[in-house]
Protein 1
Amino acid sequence: MKSKFLLFLTFLLVFSSCNFTENLNVKDDGTGTFALEMDGAGLMAMAGDKLSEGLNQKKDTKVIDSTFSFKEIFEAKKDSIAKLSPEQQAALKKMENFVMRIKMNAEKQQFLFSMDTPFKSVADLQNMMDGFKILNDLKGKSDNGGMANPLTDGLGSNAKVDYSYNGKTFTRSATMNKEALDKVKNDSLGMAKMIFASSKYTLKYHFPKAVKSVSNPDALFSADRKTITVEYPFTDYSENPEKLNLNVVFE
Protein backbone atom coordinates (compact mmCIF):
# COMPACT_ATOMS: atom_id res chain seq x y z
CA MET A 1 0.00 0.00 0.00
CA LYS A 2 2.81 2.41 0.89
CA SER A 3 4.70 1.59 -2.30
CA LYS A 4 1.59 2.30 -4.41
CA PHE A 5 1.13 5.62 -2.63
CA LEU A 6 4.74 6.64 -3.23
CA LEU A 7 4.36 5.83 -6.91
CA PHE A 8 1.25 8.01 -6.96
CA LEU A 9 3.10 10.79 -5.12
CA THR A 10 5.99 10.60 -7.58
CA PHE A 11 3.53 10.93 -10.48
CA LEU A 12 2.07 14.06 -8.88
CA LEU A 13 5.49 15.59 -8.30
CA VAL A 14 6.33 15.16 -11.97
CA PHE A 15 3.33 17.25 -12.99
CA SER A 16 3.34 19.82 -10.20
CA SER A 17 5.88 22.09 -8.54
CA CYS A 18 7.19 22.14 -4.99
CA ASN A 19 9.16 24.97 -3.47
CA PHE A 20 12.01 24.15 -1.10
CA THR A 21 13.40 26.82 1.24
CA GLU A 22 16.52 26.85 3.39
CA ASN A 23 15.66 29.36 6.11
CA LEU A 24 18.44 30.65 8.39
CA ASN A 25 17.97 33.17 11.20
CA VAL A 26 21.12 34.41 12.95
CA LYS A 27 20.90 36.48 16.16
CA ASP A 28 23.35 39.05 17.58
CA ASP A 29 25.12 36.49 19.77
CA GLY A 30 25.61 34.04 16.89
CA THR A 31 22.86 31.64 17.97
CA GLY A 32 19.80 31.11 15.82
CA THR A 33 17.51 28.70 14.02
CA PHE A 34 17.78 26.71 10.81
CA ALA A 35 14.88 25.22 8.85
CA LEU A 36 14.33 23.22 5.68
CA GLU A 37 10.83 23.77 4.34
CA MET A 38 8.74 22.43 1.49
CA ASP A 39 5.56 24.03 0.16
CA GLY A 40 3.60 21.41 -1.76
CA ALA A 41 0.45 23.41 -2.44
CA GLY A 42 0.60 22.26 -6.06
CA LEU A 43 0.21 18.66 -4.93
CA MET A 44 -2.88 19.49 -2.89
CA ALA A 45 -4.43 21.36 -5.80
CA MET A 46 -4.12 18.26 -7.97
CA ALA A 47 -5.05 15.46 -5.57
CA GLY A 48 -5.49 16.61 -1.98
CA ASP A 49 -7.85 13.82 -0.92
CA LYS A 50 -5.64 11.03 -2.26
CA LEU A 51 -2.54 12.59 -0.71
CA SER A 52 -4.22 12.88 2.70
CA GLU A 53 -5.33 9.27 2.57
CA GLY A 54 -1.86 8.10 1.58
CA LEU A 55 -0.09 9.87 4.42
CA ASN A 56 -2.68 9.33 7.10
CA GLN A 57 -4.31 6.07 5.95
CA LYS A 58 -7.68 7.32 7.19
CA LYS A 59 -10.11 8.12 4.41
CA ASP A 60 -12.27 10.34 6.62
CA THR A 61 -9.37 12.61 7.67
CA LYS A 62 -8.97 15.79 5.63
CA VAL A 63 -6.64 17.75 7.94
CA ILE A 64 -3.25 16.74 9.31
CA ASP A 65 -1.26 18.87 11.77
CA SER A 66 1.55 16.76 13.19
CA THR A 67 4.77 17.61 15.03
CA PHE A 68 7.44 15.19 16.25
CA SER A 69 11.15 15.23 17.06
CA PHE A 70 13.97 13.34 15.41
CA LYS A 71 14.75 11.83 18.81
CA GLU A 72 11.51 9.86 18.43
CA ILE A 73 12.62 8.61 15.01
CA PHE A 74 16.02 7.59 16.37
CA GLU A 75 14.42 5.74 19.26
CA ALA A 76 12.32 3.71 16.83
CA LYS A 77 15.44 2.99 14.73
CA LYS A 78 17.87 2.44 17.62
CA ASP A 79 18.65 -1.18 16.72
CA SER A 80 19.54 -0.24 13.15
CA ILE A 81 21.48 2.85 14.26
CA ALA A 82 23.55 0.75 16.67
CA LYS A 83 24.88 -1.18 13.65
CA LEU A 84 26.15 1.96 11.94
CA SER A 85 29.73 3.16 12.03
CA PRO A 86 30.77 5.65 14.75
CA GLU A 87 31.00 8.36 12.07
CA GLN A 88 27.44 7.68 10.86
CA GLN A 89 26.11 7.66 14.41
CA ALA A 90 27.84 11.00 15.06
CA ALA A 91 26.18 12.46 11.95
CA LEU A 92 22.76 11.38 13.22
CA LYS A 93 23.56 12.78 16.68
CA LYS A 94 23.71 16.26 15.12
CA MET A 95 20.07 15.89 14.09
CA GLU A 96 18.60 15.08 17.50
CA ASN A 97 17.24 18.58 18.06
CA PHE A 98 15.43 18.73 14.73
CA VAL A 99 11.64 18.94 14.87
CA MET A 100 9.53 17.85 11.91
CA ARG A 101 6.17 19.45 11.14
CA ILE A 102 3.54 18.40 8.60
CA LYS A 103 0.49 20.53 7.91
CA MET A 104 -2.04 19.32 5.37
CA ASN A 105 -5.50 20.64 4.56
CA ALA A 106 -7.16 19.38 1.39
CA GLU A 107 -9.90 22.02 1.40
CA LYS A 108 -7.40 24.88 1.72
CA GLN A 109 -4.99 23.15 -0.69
CA GLN A 110 -2.26 23.40 1.94
CA PHE A 111 0.67 21.03 2.30
CA LEU A 112 3.61 22.30 4.34
CA PHE A 113 6.52 20.11 5.39
CA SER A 114 9.36 21.46 7.53
CA MET A 115 12.33 20.40 9.65
CA ASP A 116 13.91 22.96 11.97
CA THR A 117 16.47 23.14 14.74
CA PRO A 118 18.06 25.74 17.02
CA PHE A 119 21.84 26.15 16.97
CA LYS A 120 24.39 27.66 19.35
CA SER A 121 26.77 28.52 16.53
CA VAL A 122 26.49 28.53 12.74
CA ALA A 123 29.40 26.07 12.80
CA ASP A 124 27.02 23.51 14.34
CA LEU A 125 25.39 23.20 10.90
CA GLN A 126 28.52 21.86 9.20
CA ASN A 127 27.77 18.91 6.92
CA MET A 128 24.36 18.56 8.49
CA MET A 129 22.92 16.91 5.38
CA ASP A 130 25.04 13.81 6.00
CA GLY A 131 22.56 12.78 8.69
CA PHE A 132 19.59 13.18 6.37
CA LYS A 133 21.11 10.82 3.83
CA ILE A 134 21.82 8.19 6.47
CA LEU A 135 18.31 8.48 7.90
CA ASN A 136 16.75 8.28 4.43
CA ASP A 137 18.63 5.03 3.82
CA LEU A 138 17.38 3.57 7.11
CA LYS A 139 13.78 4.61 6.52
CA GLY A 140 13.80 3.64 2.85
CA LYS A 141 14.98 0.10 3.42
CA SER A 142 12.64 -0.64 6.31
CA ASP A 143 9.54 1.36 5.38
CA ASN A 144 9.11 0.95 1.64
CA GLY A 145 11.38 -1.78 0.38
CA GLY A 146 14.16 0.60 -0.54
CA MET A 147 11.98 2.77 -2.74
CA ALA A 148 12.97 6.44 -2.79
CA ASN A 149 10.69 8.95 -1.12
CA PRO A 150 10.58 12.15 -3.23
CA LEU A 151 9.75 14.32 -0.20
CA THR A 152 12.77 13.48 1.92
CA ASP A 153 15.07 13.07 -1.08
CA GLY A 154 14.11 16.56 -2.24
CA LEU A 155 15.28 18.06 1.02
CA GLY A 156 18.63 16.36 0.74
CA SER A 157 21.74 17.69 -0.95
CA ASN A 158 24.40 16.33 -3.25
CA ALA A 159 27.14 18.38 -1.59
CA LYS A 160 29.05 19.02 1.58
CA VAL A 161 27.94 22.41 2.90
CA ASP A 162 30.02 24.51 5.30
CA TYR A 163 28.77 27.61 7.13
CA SER A 164 30.75 30.26 9.01
CA TYR A 165 29.87 33.52 10.79
CA ASN A 166 32.06 35.85 12.83
CA GLY A 167 29.92 38.98 13.10
CA LYS A 168 31.69 40.67 10.21
CA THR A 169 31.21 38.10 7.46
CA PHE A 170 29.09 35.04 6.69
CA THR A 171 29.91 32.28 4.23
CA ARG A 172 28.03 29.34 2.78
CA SER A 173 30.27 27.00 0.82
CA ALA A 174 28.99 23.88 -0.97
CA THR A 175 31.34 21.31 -2.49
CA MET A 176 29.96 18.56 -4.72
CA ASN A 177 31.20 15.08 -3.88
CA LYS A 178 32.26 12.91 -6.82
CA GLU A 179 29.93 10.00 -6.08
CA ALA A 180 26.89 12.27 -5.92
CA LEU A 181 27.98 14.14 -9.05
CA ASP A 182 28.28 10.89 -11.03
CA LYS A 183 24.84 9.83 -9.82
CA VAL A 184 23.30 13.13 -10.90
CA LYS A 185 24.93 12.92 -14.34
CA ASN A 186 23.74 9.33 -14.82
CA ASP A 187 20.21 10.38 -13.88
CA SER A 188 20.24 13.59 -15.90
CA LEU A 189 17.40 12.31 -18.06
CA GLY A 190 15.80 10.12 -15.39
CA MET A 191 13.05 10.31 -12.79
CA ALA A 192 14.76 12.69 -10.37
CA LYS A 193 15.15 15.37 -13.02
CA MET A 194 11.52 14.94 -14.08
CA ILE A 195 10.24 15.11 -10.53
CA PHE A 196 11.88 18.41 -9.68
CA ALA A 197 11.90 20.04 -13.12
CA SER A 198 9.47 22.80 -12.13
CA SER A 199 10.53 23.11 -8.48
CA LYS A 200 12.52 25.90 -6.85
CA TYR A 201 15.21 25.92 -4.15
CA THR A 202 15.46 29.15 -2.17
CA LEU A 203 17.87 30.48 0.41
CA LYS A 204 16.30 32.97 2.81
CA TYR A 205 18.86 34.23 5.34
CA HIS A 206 18.11 36.72 8.13
CA PHE A 207 20.98 38.52 9.88
CA PRO A 208 21.19 40.89 12.90
CA LYS A 209 23.14 43.45 10.84
CA ALA A 210 22.60 45.14 7.49
CA VAL A 211 24.40 43.50 4.58
CA LYS A 212 27.00 45.63 2.81
CA SER A 213 27.69 43.22 -0.02
CA VAL A 214 27.05 39.64 -1.12
CA SER A 215 29.05 37.65 -3.65
CA ASN A 216 26.08 36.02 -5.38
CA PRO A 217 24.77 38.43 -8.08
CA ASP A 218 21.28 36.89 -7.94
CA ALA A 219 20.75 37.76 -4.25
CA LEU A 220 17.81 40.04 -3.41
CA PHE A 221 17.75 42.33 -0.35
CA SER A 222 14.96 43.25 2.06
CA ALA A 223 14.28 46.96 2.68
CA ASP A 224 16.50 47.01 5.79
CA ARG A 225 19.17 44.89 4.02
CA LYS A 226 19.14 42.38 6.89
CA THR A 227 17.55 39.61 4.82
CA ILE A 228 18.89 38.17 1.56
CA THR A 229 17.05 35.78 -0.73
CA VAL A 230 18.49 33.67 -3.53
CA GLU A 231 16.35 31.38 -5.71
CA TYR A 232 17.32 28.78 -8.28
CA PRO A 233 15.52 26.01 -10.18
CA PHE A 234 15.85 22.91 -8.01
CA THR A 235 17.51 20.84 -10.72
CA ASP A 236 20.15 23.57 -11.21
CA TYR A 237 20.90 23.51 -7.49
CA SER A 238 20.96 19.70 -7.39
CA GLU A 239 23.46 19.49 -10.25
CA ASN A 240 25.50 22.57 -9.29
CA PRO A 241 25.20 23.28 -5.53
CA GLU A 242 28.06 25.77 -5.82
CA LYS A 243 25.63 28.19 -7.48
CA LEU A 244 24.24 28.95 -4.02
CA ASN A 245 27.62 29.67 -2.43
CA LEU A 246 27.64 32.98 -0.59
CA ASN A 247 30.17 35.38 0.89
CA VAL A 248 28.33 38.07 2.87
CA VAL A 249 29.97 41.20 4.31
CA PHE A 250 28.11 43.27 6.92
CA GLU A 251 28.12 47.03 7.37
Note: Residues 41-56 form the longest helix (16 residues).
Protein 2
Amino acid sequence: MSQNIIIITGAIFGMLSVIFGAFGAHALKKTLSNEQLKSFETGVKYQMYHAIVLLVLGFNSEYTSQSIYWCFSIGILLFSFSIYGLVLSDAKGKKIRFLGPITPIGGLLLIVGWVLIIINSI
Protein backbone atom coordinates (compact mmCIF):
# COMPACT_ATOMS: atom_id res chain seq x y z
CA MET A 1 0.00 0.00 0.00
CA SER A 2 1.56 3.30 -1.04
CA GLN A 3 1.79 6.22 1.36
CA ASN A 4 -0.13 8.38 -1.11
CA ILE A 5 -3.11 6.01 -1.13
CA ILE A 6 -3.20 5.97 2.67
CA ILE A 7 -3.00 9.77 2.80
CA ILE A 8 -5.66 10.22 0.11
CA THR A 9 -7.97 7.74 1.84
CA GLY A 10 -7.51 9.52 5.18
CA ALA A 11 -8.15 12.90 3.54
CA ILE A 12 -11.32 11.63 1.81
CA PHE A 13 -12.68 10.17 5.05
CA GLY A 14 -11.76 13.39 6.88
CA MET A 15 -13.45 15.55 4.25
CA LEU A 16 -16.57 13.40 4.33
CA SER A 17 -16.74 13.57 8.11
CA VAL A 18 -16.75 17.38 7.93
CA ILE A 19 -19.49 17.26 5.28
CA PHE A 20 -21.54 14.73 7.26
CA GLY A 21 -20.98 16.65 10.49
CA ALA A 22 -22.24 19.87 8.91
CA PHE A 23 -25.15 18.00 7.33
CA GLY A 24 -26.08 16.54 10.73
CA ALA A 25 -25.70 19.83 12.59
CA HIS A 26 -27.69 21.87 10.11
CA ALA A 27 -29.89 19.87 7.75
CA LEU A 28 -30.80 17.06 10.17
CA LYS A 29 -31.05 19.08 13.37
CA LYS A 30 -34.81 19.56 13.00
CA THR A 31 -35.45 16.10 11.59
CA LEU A 32 -33.64 13.90 14.11
CA SER A 33 -34.36 13.36 17.79
CA ASN A 34 -31.60 14.23 20.26
CA GLU A 35 -30.75 10.54 20.59
CA GLN A 36 -30.56 10.07 16.82
CA LEU A 37 -28.43 13.18 16.44
CA LYS A 38 -26.03 11.90 19.14
CA SER A 39 -25.71 8.58 17.31
CA PHE A 40 -25.08 10.36 14.01
CA GLU A 41 -22.43 12.52 15.69
CA THR A 42 -20.76 9.38 17.10
CA GLY A 43 -20.37 8.05 13.56
CA VAL A 44 -18.90 11.38 12.44
CA LYS A 45 -16.45 11.52 15.37
CA TYR A 46 -15.16 8.00 14.90
CA GLN A 47 -14.82 8.57 11.18
CA MET A 48 -12.75 11.71 11.79
CA TYR A 49 -10.59 10.12 14.48
CA HIS A 50 -9.66 7.26 12.18
CA ALA A 51 -9.22 9.54 9.16
CA ILE A 52 -6.61 11.44 11.19
CA VAL A 53 -4.93 8.16 12.15
CA LEU A 54 -4.77 7.17 8.48
CA LEU A 55 -3.12 10.51 7.68
CA VAL A 56 -0.58 10.07 10.48
CA LEU A 57 0.16 6.54 9.31
CA GLY A 58 0.50 7.72 5.71
CA PHE A 59 3.15 10.20 6.77
CA ASN A 60 4.89 7.61 9.01
CA SER A 61 5.00 4.50 6.87
CA GLU A 62 7.20 2.53 9.27
CA TYR A 63 4.19 2.14 11.60
CA THR A 64 1.65 0.99 9.03
CA SER A 65 0.82 -2.01 6.89
CA GLN A 66 -1.83 -3.05 4.41
CA SER A 67 -3.64 -4.84 7.22
CA ILE A 68 -3.87 -1.67 9.31
CA TYR A 69 -5.00 0.34 6.29
CA TRP A 70 -7.76 -2.13 5.46
CA CYS A 71 -8.88 -2.55 9.07
CA PHE A 72 -9.32 1.20 9.46
CA SER A 73 -10.83 1.79 6.01
CA ILE A 74 -13.34 -1.05 6.16
CA GLY A 75 -13.91 -0.38 9.86
CA ILE A 76 -14.87 3.24 9.10
CA LEU A 77 -17.23 2.14 6.34
CA LEU A 78 -18.91 -0.54 8.43
CA PHE A 79 -19.00 1.37 11.72
CA SER A 80 -19.73 4.98 10.78
CA PHE A 81 -21.70 4.41 7.60
CA SER A 82 -23.93 1.78 9.24
CA ILE A 83 -24.70 4.31 11.99
CA TYR A 84 -25.58 6.91 9.35
CA GLY A 85 -27.85 4.41 7.63
CA LEU A 86 -29.50 3.30 10.87
CA VAL A 87 -30.17 6.86 12.02
CA LEU A 88 -31.43 8.17 8.69
CA SER A 89 -33.64 5.14 8.03
CA ASP A 90 -35.03 5.32 11.58
CA ALA A 91 -35.82 9.01 11.10
CA LYS A 92 -37.87 8.05 8.03
CA GLY A 93 -39.71 5.37 10.03
CA LYS A 94 -38.19 2.48 8.07
CA LYS A 95 -35.17 1.42 10.13
CA ILE A 96 -32.85 -0.83 8.13
CA ARG A 97 -32.35 -3.50 10.78
CA PHE A 98 -29.63 -5.52 9.04
CA LEU A 99 -27.26 -2.57 9.59
CA GLY A 100 -27.41 -3.07 13.38
CA PRO A 101 -25.08 -6.10 13.48
CA ILE A 102 -22.71 -4.45 10.98
CA THR A 103 -21.80 -1.60 13.35
CA PRO A 104 -19.97 -3.78 15.92
CA ILE A 105 -18.09 -5.59 13.14
CA GLY A 106 -16.81 -2.20 12.00
CA GLY A 107 -15.89 -1.35 15.59
CA LEU A 108 -14.02 -4.63 15.92
CA LEU A 109 -12.03 -3.85 12.77
CA LEU A 110 -11.12 -0.44 14.19
CA ILE A 111 -9.90 -2.13 17.39
CA VAL A 112 -7.89 -4.67 15.38
CA GLY A 113 -6.30 -1.77 13.48
CA TRP A 114 -5.14 -0.26 16.77
CA VAL A 115 -3.81 -3.63 17.96
CA LEU A 116 -1.86 -3.98 14.71
CA ILE A 117 -0.30 -0.56 15.25
CA ILE A 118 0.86 -1.74 18.66
CA ILE A 119 2.27 -4.94 17.19
CA ASN A 120 4.05 -3.07 14.38
CA SER A 121 5.59 -0.73 16.93
CA ILE A 122 7.04 -3.48 19.11
Note: The helical segments are 3-27, 34-59, 66-91, 102-121.
Protein 3
Amino acid sequence: MGILDVIFGNSTNQLLEYLNKGAAILDVRTDAEYYSNHIDNAIHIPLQELEYRVDEVKKLKKPVVVYCASGMRSANASRFLVANGIDAINGGGIAKVRSVL
Protein backbone atom coordinates (compact mmCIF):
# COMPACT_ATOMS: atom_id res chain seq x y z
CA MET A 1 0.00 0.00 0.00
CA GLY A 2 1.46 3.34 -1.04
CA ILE A 3 1.05 6.78 0.49
CA LEU A 4 -1.64 7.68 -2.05
CA ASP A 5 -3.63 4.61 -1.03
CA VAL A 6 -3.47 5.72 2.58
CA ILE A 7 -4.68 9.21 1.69
CA PHE A 8 -7.17 8.54 -1.08
CA GLY A 9 -8.25 4.95 -0.56
CA ASN A 10 -7.12 1.44 -1.21
CA SER A 11 -6.84 -0.25 -4.58
CA THR A 12 -9.88 -1.37 -6.49
CA ASN A 13 -8.78 -4.98 -5.97
CA GLN A 14 -8.71 -4.58 -2.20
CA LEU A 15 -12.11 -2.85 -2.25
CA LEU A 16 -13.55 -5.74 -4.24
CA GLU A 17 -11.95 -8.25 -1.88
CA TYR A 18 -13.56 -6.58 1.14
CA LEU A 19 -16.95 -6.18 -0.53
CA ASN A 20 -16.90 -9.81 -1.69
CA LYS A 21 -16.33 -10.97 1.87
CA GLY A 22 -19.42 -9.08 3.03
CA ALA A 23 -17.89 -5.87 4.37
CA ALA A 24 -20.16 -3.20 5.75
CA ILE A 25 -19.95 0.16 4.00
CA LEU A 26 -19.51 3.12 6.35
CA ASP A 27 -20.15 6.70 5.26
CA VAL A 28 -18.35 9.19 7.53
CA ARG A 29 -19.47 12.37 5.76
CA THR A 30 -21.70 15.03 7.31
CA ASP A 31 -25.47 14.64 7.54
CA ALA A 32 -25.99 17.10 4.68
CA GLU A 33 -23.56 15.23 2.42
CA TYR A 34 -25.14 11.88 3.27
CA TYR A 35 -28.71 13.00 2.68
CA SER A 36 -27.89 14.66 -0.62
CA ASN A 37 -26.15 11.57 -2.04
CA HIS A 38 -25.11 8.25 -0.52
CA ILE A 39 -24.56 4.59 -1.33
CA ASP A 40 -27.58 2.42 -0.66
CA ASN A 41 -27.26 0.34 2.52
CA ALA A 42 -24.32 2.42 3.77
CA ILE A 43 -24.17 2.93 7.51
CA HIS A 44 -23.92 6.62 8.30
CA ILE A 45 -21.78 7.74 11.21
CA PRO A 46 -20.23 11.19 10.72
CA LEU A 47 -16.50 11.25 11.47
CA GLN A 48 -16.95 13.59 14.43
CA GLU A 49 -19.32 11.02 16.04
CA LEU A 50 -17.28 7.90 15.33
CA GLU A 51 -15.32 7.98 18.58
CA TYR A 52 -18.59 7.82 20.53
CA ARG A 53 -20.29 5.28 18.25
CA VAL A 54 -17.45 2.82 17.62
CA ASP A 55 -19.36 0.09 19.48
CA GLU A 56 -22.04 0.22 16.77
CA VAL A 57 -19.39 -0.71 14.23
CA LYS A 58 -17.93 -3.43 16.48
CA LYS A 59 -21.39 -5.02 16.82
CA LEU A 60 -21.50 -5.56 13.05
CA LYS A 61 -18.82 -8.24 13.45
CA LYS A 62 -17.67 -7.82 9.87
CA PRO A 63 -14.99 -5.99 7.92
CA VAL A 64 -15.68 -2.36 7.05
CA VAL A 65 -15.05 -0.22 3.97
CA VAL A 66 -15.08 3.46 4.94
CA TYR A 67 -15.78 6.25 2.47
CA CYS A 68 -16.21 10.01 2.47
CA ALA A 69 -16.07 12.64 -0.28
CA SER A 70 -12.41 12.45 -1.25
CA GLY A 71 -10.72 9.89 0.99
CA MET A 72 -9.25 12.15 3.66
CA ARG A 73 -11.88 11.68 6.38
CA SER A 74 -12.24 8.01 5.57
CA ALA A 75 -8.46 7.61 6.01
CA ASN A 76 -8.74 9.02 9.53
CA ALA A 77 -11.80 6.91 10.27
CA SER A 78 -10.28 3.66 9.02
CA ARG A 79 -7.11 4.22 11.07
CA PHE A 80 -9.27 4.86 14.15
CA LEU A 81 -11.31 1.70 13.53
CA VAL A 82 -8.20 -0.44 13.06
CA ALA A 83 -6.75 0.98 16.28
CA ASN A 84 -9.97 -0.17 17.96
CA GLY A 85 -9.67 -3.74 16.69
CA ILE A 86 -11.93 -3.50 13.64
CA ASP A 87 -10.88 -4.86 10.24
CA ALA A 88 -11.36 -1.67 8.20
CA ILE A 89 -9.98 -0.10 5.05
CA ASN A 90 -10.16 3.34 3.52
CA GLY A 91 -12.38 3.00 0.47
CA GLY A 92 -11.65 6.56 -0.56
CA GLY A 93 -14.25 8.88 -2.00
CA ILE A 94 -17.85 7.96 -2.69
CA ALA A 95 -17.27 7.88 -6.45
CA LYS A 96 -14.48 5.32 -6.11
CA VAL A 97 -16.53 3.02 -3.87
CA ARG A 98 -19.60 3.38 -6.07
CA SER A 99 -17.52 2.47 -9.14
CA VAL A 100 -16.79 -1.02 -7.77
CA LEU A 101 -20.30 -1.82 -6.58
Note: The two ends are 21 Å apart (CA to CA).
